[in-house]
Amino acid sequence: MRDGDVLLTPEHPEASVKHIMRGVVRSGLRVIPPKRSVSLRIDADVLEWFKAQGSGYQTRINAVLRAYREAARS
Q1: Is residue 28 left, alpha or beta, with left meaning phi > 0 and alpha meaning psi from -120 to 50?
Q2: Predicted pLDDT of residue 49
C-alpha cells in the first residue's frame, strides 16, 4: 500500500509523532484514572506563568501537584 492509497477522514486522521509516542510510552503501564473537573482558585501570576509555557498548562499543573503529593508521602 502506498501513502496515496490511504484515505484520511476526521475519524481517522493522519497519525502525528506525538500521538504515536503517547502509545509507545503508555504501552504496558497502568490505566490512567479519569480526570475530574474542579473549580480551583490560583493566583493570577502563577496561572499566567504556567500558560506562558505553552499548551498543556493544565497537565503541567497536575504534574506539579502529583509530584508534591509523592514528595509528601516520603
Answers
A1: left
A2: 95
Within 13 Å, how many C-alpha atoms sit on residue 37's CB side?
A: 0
Q: Are 60 and 49 in contact (CB under 8 A)?
A: no
Distance, in Å, from the CA atom of 67 to the CA atom of 62, rounded to the nearest integer, reads: 9
Residue appearing with cell numbers 503529593: 69
Torsion 27-29-33-35 (CA) sign: negative
The C-alpha cell at 5 is 492509497
* Residue span of the structural domain in which 26 resides: 3-73
**How many independent structural domains does the chain possess?**
1
pLDDT in tens, 10-50: 777 777 777 666 666 656 666 677 889 999 999 999 999 99
